[in-house]
Amino acid sequence: VVTGDAPLMLAVLRACPTLRQLLGTPIELPDLNASEVTELLEAFSKKRGFQLAPAVQESAAVQKHIASTLQRADREHKNAHMATQLLEDAVVRQTERVHALGTVTKASLLTIIE
């Protein structure tokens, strides 16, 4: 599997017929929408041992932020990359917030509240 910007990938495949034979038929998938990025964010959070607080999961502001970020992002920073970066940013903010409040517990560190 090879991923990348569709026009660039098609140019590479045209330039290298052997690679095209090895890879088979190209499949172009649409970018994810805000709801799908949120689902990935939840899945990535669980995989890393974090939990999104219900207020975060149901927040219209979070959806609006993700939708806005998707509109501004270039092709390399959308989809799974965006969900990963959102989680990284949330973990940093959560850690700073918990430390500043002095409420350091496992639950407070692992539950993303905003």
From TrEMBL:
Position of the signal peptide: none
InterPro entries: AAA_lid_6
Stretches assigned to the CbbX AAA lid domain: 61-112
A Pfam match: AAA_lid_6
Protein name per the record: CbbX AAA lid domain-containing protein
Organism of this sequence: Pyramimonas obovata
Native organism taxonomy: Eukaryota, Viridiplantae, Chlorophyta, Pyramimonadophyceae, Pyramimonadales
